[in-house]
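Researcher: Please translate sequence to structure tokens.
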Amino acid sequence: MKKIIECVPNFSEGRDMGIINQITSEIETVEGVKLLDVDPGKATNRTVVTFVGTPDEVIEAAFRAVKKASQLIDMSKHKGEHPRMGATDVCPLVPVANISMEEVIEYAHRLAERIGSELKIPVYCYENAAKLPERRNLANCRSGEYEGMQEKLSKPEWKPDFGPAEFNSRSGVTAVGARDFLVAYNINLNTTSTRRANAIAFDVREKGRVKREGHPLTGKKVLDEKGQPVYIPGSLKAVKGIGWYIEEYGIAQISMNLTNISITPVHIAFEEVCKKAEARGVRVTGSELVGLVPKKTLIDAGKYFLTKQNRSLGVSESEIIKIAVKSMGLDELKPFNPREKVIEYMLEDDSSQKLLNMNLQEFADETASESPAPGGGSISAYAGALGISLGIMVANLSSHKRGWDEKWEYYSKWAEKGQAIKDELLFLVDEDTNAFNKIMDAFGLPKSNDKEKAERAKAIQDATKYAIEIPLRVMKKSLEAMEILEDMANNGLPASVSDAGVGAACVRSAVIGAFLNVKINGQDLEEKKYLEKILKEGKAIEAEACKKEAEILKIVETKIS
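Model: Translation complete:
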């Protein structure tokens, strides 16, 4: 599971596309990073860039972009409507998938330290990456803007977190932060009234609406001791929102920024707007996501709506996302293609999933060809995936059985667990072939001198060890499937008990087949003690799989007869 982060640097140039293109080209030179969006603004003289990828690669791309901006943008000549203090004004990092905020903060500090030490640019860390409480708010860090930075840096309390406490007249000051993922989300209404849309927006947004004496619309504003308006908070935390009319669609919308989707996810915002709209005689007809979102956003939404329907959550990822799209009407205004809206899908490398992208005929033909891969390792992984898929099927059918409604959660949990096993085994189908290719690549390395020979020998041994570990993972993961298949044989839909038996037979074959690959790939491994340990572990897994298969088939035969 790859760790993925997003970076959204803002550069103080929005008019000269030559400069902008040179900066973004630096980002695209880093493998493992994908440039998603470049949004220049002429009035603000500022460009917002969005790219994603694995953490080390993202901070490398960010550094290269910051460096190029420092070479091309002269802040002493910069004018623009947006507040700014540096050539690279802000550079926030955002967790997307399989990474915690704490880890992202560490990456932000690494990036900030490098900008400060190598480029001699003063850096403040803000939001979650802030080293001091008063620097958490970006506005505090940027107060005084570029023109006031020389004086600001001379004050002890505003010594930069990284870099010199000296004014860099060309590049100014940069803020590096770590923040939560922000989702721009619009909800469609069956009205053309901006006033009614605004009323609903004020009901839900965290800021709420101004408190008034008497009539809620025309009454006198209530002020605090400082003379500022008092607000009645809305029902959703970490949500900003307004109502507006979209002429293109001929409807009013609630336009929201969900600033922390771990506090208020998209589906909760949708449900709450539905409630508030209904209370005002307005109906929600659908919604739209602006820009890209992490996959978890749609998975969580799909599971939420499946739970409301008392349906199993152990269905395929594509089915869960389909439920999310239909439940929130994400395709009302235009077609919704998850492959173009989900960050993880945009980053997928199709070449690494060559086998999974084939149909059954193509997969069989490729296996039967003269090519040595895919071989027994990939077939074993696929057999295991098919075996657990039968167990998932029995669980999902059981959750739907008339009269078993009160047990749907029981079967849903088994199906969910099975889906996780299936997904890893499917990944291992291609990964076994990739492991074989690593060995071939290692043998192809140069060996013209002693150093190259040593490096080649090490690469071969490392690749060989990986080619052993992959089928071992197939064995372990396949064995986990037996628990589910046994429960489905005992407690699942009686008419599908044979499917549990077939699943067990597939899984046992997967374990035995994968172990054969462990043994043959280990023939050339020089670390004999490591190999002995692996073979001992594999033998135990194989014995347990055969035992479990026999027990499950006994249950199946008893029930059939």
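Researcher: Any highlights?
Model: The CA atoms of residues 124 and 465 lie 44 Å apart.
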